[in-house]
Amino acid sequence: MIFAIIIDDEFNAREFLKKLLFRHFSEKITVVETCDSVESGVKAMAKYQADLVFLDIQMPKENGFDFFAHFNEINFEVILTTAYKEHAINAIKYNVLDYLLKPINYIDLLSTIRRLENRKKAVSINRNTETLLENFNNNTDTFNKIALPTHNGYELININNIMFCHSENNYCRVICMDEKEILLSKTLKYVQGLLNSNLFVRIHKSYLVNLNYIVSFDKTDELKITLTNGSILPVSIRKKEQFLNAILHKS
């Protein structure tokens, strides 16, 4: 069940929308409160923690867009209700679910409710997928593979086959022992969180390396390491002590 709040300074508009929702969507949506101002709407949200807000824009004192300023995080859906089409641009700016032009009719409301249901399904699927992958990646006693998010889905890679990972701005390139490379739309920090900290060490802000593939390290001038495939990677000054401790501990 979706719990909703209606915020509109016009009594007739509030009651009409409430009755429309009850008549056609009572099995999906329950209106827990109707409010005549932004102030009373904020109080109702604090009380009920509603999932959905039907928000009028043109109101005295504070308008509908002022409502957003009362929250550090918008973790609920908002549907704007307005008689003015020009507010559509601001609707996009505030990432609201939809906006309904007054007078609200059943067809438009039905379309918006379907959009709400589709978004909730998508969020649920994403959360379930993330939970599944987290459980998979953390279950090191059973699996020796890691699920890496790719453009088309996920690819399962044997952890021991990963030689090193290279940061490329907001992307991360994973280099494997069979010369296979996988470009991820994730940061190096994200990938580091998935991998075994006893096996992989951050040697540089741009590099995460598998200790098993290091064949030598040169301490003259700038510290550099050489991997089994011939790759030469830099070790930053800030990471030098951490790297040497990891090598000595492993030895």
Automatic annotation (TrEMBL):
Coiled-coil positions: none
Entry protein name: Two component transcriptional regulator, LytTR family
Keyword Repressor: no
GO MF, any single term: DNA binding
Residue ranges of every copy of the Response regulatory domain listed in the record: 3-117
HTH LytTR-type domain sequence ranges: 146-250
Species of provenance: Lutibacter flavus
Keyword terms, alphabetized: Phosphoprotein
Pfam families referenced in this protein's UniProt entry, alphabetically: LytTR (PF04397), Response_reg (PF00072)
Highest taxon of source: Bacteria
Modified residues (4-aspartylphosphate): D56
SUPFAM superfamilies, per database record: CheY-like (SSF52172)
